[in-house]
Amino acid sequence: MKPSVATRLSPTIYETLVAAASANGRSISAEVEKRIEQSLEADEDQKKRREAVASMVAEAQSLKLP
Fold it and tell me: In Å, how far from its chain's centre is CA 58?
């Protein structure tokens, strides 16, 4: 069994969530879970991009240009 979390939402967010869940053929709970999953994946992707840029900057700074 999955853990559950209770939260309060503004009426506007709740109605938007209900509409999105319906449009995507999901329950409200499944829609919330999917959107949290996507948000966490986006955070991880952004972290990887930052690390890649930092690595490129460090490499560029180590080059000795005339």
Answer: 27
Question: For residue range 5-55, what is the model confidence (pLDDT) as tens digits?
Answer: 999 999 999 999 999 999 999 999 999 999 999 999 999 999 999 999 999
Q: Would you say 27 and 21 are in contact if contact means Cβ atoms under 8 Å apart?
A: yes
Tell me the C-alpha distance between 66 and 63, whole Å.
Answer: 10
pTM for the structure as a whole: 0.76
